[in-house]
User: Which sequence fits this backbone?
């Protein structure tokens, strides 16, 4: 949580969460979440971002979404990871639309 003093009132803001997609130097896409996007991308590029990206540096940020809570970010991360590569590329380009949910 982040807080800001405004006179005698303290406002508390939830930490922002981001779902992100990075493209590795070999063209592979990696999806993750973080509450500090700049630090996380630096970690990926230094080889400390995780097993998947450790030997695929350098990476570049190609997509990000803001989420209000960690739970929302985790749900969205799972949804994106379930997409096929062409759908992820369309999402990155801004062309992907979620298919309508079935009413079963």
Assistant:
């Amino acid at each position: 949580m982040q807080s800001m003093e405004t006179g005698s009132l303290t406002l508390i803001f939830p930490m922002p969460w981001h779902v992100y997609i990075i493209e590795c130097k070999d063209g592979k896409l990696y999806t993750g979440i973080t509450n500090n996007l700049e630090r996380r991308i630096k970690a990926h590029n230094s080889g400390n971002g995780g097993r998947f990206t450790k030997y695929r540096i350098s990476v570049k940020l190609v997509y990000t979404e803001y989420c209000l809570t960690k739970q929302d970010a985790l749900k969205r991360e799972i949804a994106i990871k379930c997409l096929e590569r062409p759908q992820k590329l369309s999402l990155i380009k801004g062309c992907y639309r979620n298919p309508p949910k079935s009413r079963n």
